[in-house]
Amino acid sequence: MKKTFSISIFLSLLFFMPACGGKSTTSPPPPVTVQSITVTSANSMVYVGVTEQFTATANMSDGTIKAITTGTWSSTNQTVATVNTAGLASIVGSGTTNITMTYSGKSGSKSIRGLPNYQGTWTGNYRVDSCTSTGDWATFDFCSYLPNGTIAETNLILTQTQDSVSGTFFLGTLSSTGTGPVATDGQLTFLGKITEGTTSIDAVFILQSTTPGIITGSLNQLWTDTTMSGNAQLYTTIISLTRTSPVPNEAAFTRASLPQNPTIQDLLKALRIR
Predict the structure, then answer these.
(1) Which pLDDT band, with edges at 50, 70 and 90, does 7 fall under?
(2) Domains of the chain and any CATH numbers
(3) Beta bridge partner(s), residue 204
(4) Coil, strand, or helix at residue 3?
(5) Three-point CA angle 250, 253, 254, nearest 5°
(6) Which of 14, 55, 79, 129 has the fewest Cβ atoms nearer than 10 Å?
(7) Are 11 and 3 a contacting pair, CB within 8 Å?
């Protein structure tokens, strides 16, 4: 009996020993790690030649957000934008790119689009490359007034909101309003229509600005008249348009002073052909 009692006491003491002075078995908290990266900036569309500041934050495993002051910035398309070590992106061309921050094994990015700045007052000329005419326009011999190589004036007064452009265009002193979108590659298709008396001129500007302050492209014109059959079409090249003011200036150009029912000769004279 004594032997059985001693073994019972020993086992009881052995069982309770950890509770009487042993170390705690509580596990330490897991380390806080980066779960994802968020990249932000003020704008999603930025004009060529302008900079955009990007910032990045880390979303941590404990639910907190940490500002990132180190890490690596990069641009997926450096023909559109380059970015320095401080997250300052320089827009160098038209198109889209992702500005990315890589930190602690995680990456986050934001897409940004570079596009030309077409806003402002523009002055320039275009050159006639070819002319075709049909019906009464051919009988009138319209193209003899605008042979290949003819130089004439064109001017634009444009307002731009991101990738949408509107404003006034001038063919010499003839003028009207137009609108158009800026494509991802930076090309602006600007459409407008001049109507004087019974004659209308549909103008299609296909414009590009790879150098800030300079526009190149083409200007095609479709001439029609409600009293004439057929039409006349002009295909022209814009020699250059130079921005003379960064803001629209409606007083920059003189509108035509024409008779109530101008003739085609009146309109041709208003083109300011050289």
Answers:
(1) low
(2) 34-115 (2.60.40.1080), 120-270 (2.40.160)
(3) 191, 220
(4) helix
(5) 115
(6) 14
(7) no
